[in-house]
Specification:
Chain lengths: 172, 701
């Protein structure tokens, strides 16, 4: 996956991206990572779980964990509106595929972009962890952050953020 | 038995495939430690499998080969081109001899001893004159042939009296299968008899009242016939008589006589049958065996066997587990959708729709059964394979062993069962070899002469537990500790719990056995076991007490399982409590729970500790209604009450994992989808009770 991405970057290939909003900020991720977009169904909260884990939903017979992306980014808890939706993401953690639902305030659009246009993130003055952000792109008058979603949603990272009492995961 | 042989060949082929790829990559990269380990492990498993099936020649051969790689692994030897060449040649040879395990083909035999000699050179056993071995082996081989007076290829008639005990159904045996197996061995007349039942009151439908007289004309040996009954020998009367005449089965008057007793409770008088046979049958001519006949026949027979295995392979196909998983997902989706259809239909009664909905329900149920049948098999299939192993190994070791299995009906993924067979084989062998003592030693410790090895499987929550329990000498924590220190796994002054120390057993290269035997003791077994089980996302642990015995527990999560559960509601969230742990339900006033200092309720005049789940789960302390339901669940020997708001009813739940994100919430073992599409969480009551006990301890501190 990584090798592929590098290759694409070298050739400056055009890729599709989806942009979405959390509070007033715009983010974008490669469309390839998104399996589908859902309206918010009934979510079942798992007791005693960290607050960014909203619960689990029934995705056509499979059980899908759902994450409040806003809490994950240090914002306030998500407020459900008609635009709130769940992005079903397929992410890669330690060479394993993990499917997870990400609650976002709204999705904006799908657009195509030359990978060359992704600019490196300024290393200072960002309020988000640098390894979560792959780069920035300029769209008209506003900037959008391209997320490295494998990092953002990897459960290992969740571990470090959450105040759960369990043992740290052993890498074996 | 044939079926098991097929399984063996299939597994051996897979192992050999593995071996080949590892060997080839070793050739490119001779210093790759992990590949050497891999080669060694595959050989070790192959050796184990072969000796389990009594194929000693293959087992010995692989044992020698394995020794080379053991030495390389330990750094005592360097992998050389020559070793690899020999190994690859041995690999080709193994491919041939797994279907010719007795080396009946001349070419295979020659090759076998040539290779053994080469291998012995590497491991320094000293060259043995190939001719010597050959002769010794040949003598051994000839022996069984010399003992049986009959030439192998001539047909004989057997009279088999097979009378199973009335309780035979209770251990899951089906005598009809055995009869069918016999019938497949040649031409046969099968005469069933019914035991006389005086009145219907005496009739017990779970008892077997049938016995059989079977006349079989076949080229096989008496031992082959006896082999059919190997698993029921203990609880049936089996008498096999050879009638020295043939062409009886097709004879009309013979048929008439033997069929005369059909369904009657009449013991057949074998002498009169032989007299009858004498008058109508053709005498079996006991020709002296010519030497060339002896060699030629087995080869031919073996060719036939080869063709048969090929045919059998075609009858089943391999499907990737991904596809099966997807099928299962779709089926459960269908079941869920169908549940909503039924729900909709109940609300809007339309006769036409009702018919359609009922049909769909029927179809989806059948589809579900088939889909589950494809992936889930009762663990019994695997258990029965070990009977033979235990018997053979314990005999070889001179130990008296009672092998008990429990919970054979527990269902597991087929692929999991396949992967589990090897580790369990290792563990059982270890128990027999190192765990159980010799009969004399046991007596001196005031134990029953007969040791017991128990294989137990059961569900808890969404996990399956498999335990191997022996009542042998146990493992001494101190010995393991010392060994761990001497191997450098542990520092002198480190303090560990007993459990942590027992975990050293699973370290690569850790063996406490003083002597390496053919059966176990190289210290590979247990780390392979651990790795195999970790691959299945399972956990393995050991508990042991000196002189009391050792219990090895394997816990496996189920990717998919169906449990009967009790659907309950707590704070508007649905939960499932596995019905298997539920004892009884009671209704209590909330006030009784709230002002309860001791956390004890009096139910049916007994004190029962209880857990206020709302409190534990961080909801408001009690529900808005005045009453709560207490569900008394058993946890081992304990009984604990768990409070819930409402009991909805029984529910058959397809349990699905809730994913890695929730690994710290392991008191929820999974989730299931209800008819209306919403989710219910499946509780692992064992974990909840553990968690609660920990809380209470912390509070006390």
């Amino acid at each position: 996956m990584k090798a592929e991405a590098t290759l694409e970057r070298l050739s400056g290939e055009t890729k599709s991206f989806l942009s979405f909003k959390l509070a007033e900020e715009h983010f974008t991720i490669p469309v390839m990572k998104i399996m589908e977009i859902l309206e918010v169904p009934k979510i079942t909260k798992v007791p005693q779980s960290p607050n960014f884990l909203v619960g689990v939903i029934n995705l056509r017979g499979a059980v899908l964990p759902v994450i409040d992306t806003r809490i994950k980014f240090g914002m306030s808890q998500i407020q459900y509106t008609i635009n709130t939706c769940i992005l079903v993401l397929s992410i890669e953690v330690n060479d394993e595929e993990l499917v997870v639902g990400a609650l976002v305030d709204s999705v904006s659009e799908v657009f195509e972009l030359d990978e060359d246009k992704i600019k490196p993130t300024p290393t200072i003055a960002t309020k988000y962890r640098a390894d979560y952000i792959q780069g920035m792109i300029q769209e008209n008058d506003h900037f959008m952050m391209v997320l490295n979603i494998d990092k953002v949603f990897s459960s290992n990272d969740l571990e470090s953020i959450s105040e759960s009492k369990g043992m740290p995961i052993k890498e074996d | 038995m044939e079926e098991m042989k097929d399984t063996y060949i299939q597994e051996a082929n897979e192992l050999l495939e593995n071996l080949e790829s590892s060997l080839l990559s070793l050739e490119d990269n001779p210093n790759d430690k992990s590949n050497i380990e891999q080669v060694f492990r595959v050989m070790h498993t192959l050796k184990g499998n072969s000796s389990m099936f009594g194929l000693t020649k293959i087992a010995e051969f692989v044992h020698d080969l394995e020794t080379i790689y053991d030495k390389i692994r330990q750094g005592e030897m360097q992998l050389s081109k020559e070793i690899l060449n020999t190994t690859l040649a041995s690999f080709d040879h193994l491919n041939l001899i797994i279907v010719d395990s007795e080396l009946e083909e001349e070419l295979n035999k020659d090759n076998h001893f040539k290779l053994i000699n080469e291998i012995h050179k590497f491991i320094g056993k000293g060259s043995v004159n190939s001719h010597d071995i050959e002769q010794v082996i040949e003598e051994q081989e000839l022996q069984p042939v010399a003992v049986s007076s009959e030439p192998i290829d001539l047909p004989k008639t057997f009279h088999i009296h097979f009378e199973p005990e009335e309780s035979i159904f209770l251990d899951g045996s089906n005598p009809l299968f055995l009869v069918a197996e016999l019938a497949a061995m040649g031409k046969s007349i099968i005469v069933p008899h019914f035991k006389h039942v005086t009145s219907l009151n005496d009739y017990n439908p779970t008892s077997c009242f049938t016995y059989w007289d079977i006349y079989l004309e076949s080229t096989c040996q008496k031992t082959d016939v006896l082999d059919v009954f190997v698993f029921v020998e203990g609880n049936s009367t089996i008498e096999i008589t050879e009638i020295p005449f043939i062409e009886l089965i097709s004879n009309a008057s013979f048929n008439e006589v033997v069929n005369g007793t059909i369904f009657k409770d009449l013991k057949t008088d074998i002498t009169s049958i032989i007299l009858l046979a004498e008058s109508i049958g053709k005498k079996v001519e006991a020709e002296p065996i010519k030497n060339d006949v002896l060699v030629a026949t087995p080869v031919e027979a073996q060719k036939v066997a080869k063709v048969e295995t090929k045919e059998k392979v075609v009858s089943s196909i391999r499907v990737s587990s991904d596809k099966l998983d997807e099928l299962m997902n779709l089926v459960s989706e269908l079941v869920t959708t169908q549940a909503s259809l039924t729900l909709y239909n109940q609300k809007n009664e339309t006769p036409e729709l009702e018919v359609i909905s009922e049909n769909i329900e029927k179809l989806s149920r059948r589809l579900r059964d088939i889909a589950f049948g494809m992936t889930l098999v009762p663990i019994n299939n695997m258990f029965s394979r070990f009977q033979r192993l235990v018997r053979d190994v314990s005999m070889a070791l001179g130990k008296e062993v009672q092998f008990v299995t429990e919970g054979g009906e527990t269902e597991l993924d087929k692929s999991i069962i396949e992967t589990l067979t090897d580790p369990l084989m290792h563990i059982i062998r270890n128990s027999l070899d190192h765990g159980l003592e010799l009969p004399e030693v046991r007596e001196s410790h005031n134990k029953d002469r007969k040791g017991t090895v128990k294989l137990k499987a059961f569900y808890s929550g969404i996990s399956v537990y498999i335990q191997i329990i022996d009542d042998g000498k146990g493992i001494d924590v101190n010995i393991i500790r010392k060994k761990a220190i001497s191997k450098g796994f542990l520092k002198e002054d480190e303090v560990l719990t007993d459990k942590e120390i027992f975990d050293f057993i699973f370290y690569p290269g850790f063996s406490t056995a003083e002597v390496i035997t053919d059966i176990s003791g190289r210290g590979v077994g247990m780390d392979v076991v651990k790795r195999n089980i970790t691959d299945l996302k399972g956990v393995v642990s050991v508990e042991s007490k000196v002189n009391v015995g050792t219990t090895l527990t394997i816990k496996l999560p189920l990717s998919l399982s169906i449990i009967d559960g009790l659907l309950v509601e707590i704070a508007h969230v649905n939960y499932i409590i596995p019905l298997s742990v539920v004892n009884k339900c009671y209704e209590v006033d909330n006030s009784e729970m709230m002002d309860n200092f001791n956390k004890l309720l009096i139910l049916d005049e007994k004190q029962v500790p209880f857990i206020n789940i709302r409190q534990e789960f961080g909801y408001k302390n009690v529900s808005d209604s005045e009453k709560s339901q207490i569900i008394v669940v058993s946890d081992g020997d304990k009984k604990v009450g768990i409070s819930v708001d409402y009991i909805v009813g029984e529910y058959q739940a397809v349990v699905k994992p809730i994913g890695k994100y929730y690994k710290n919430q392991d008191f929820i073992s999974g989730a299931t989808i209800l008819g209306d599409g919403s989710i219910a969480l499946v509780m692992d009551t064992h974990k909840i009770i553990d968690l609660y006990t920990e809380h209470v301890k912390l509070e006390l501190k």
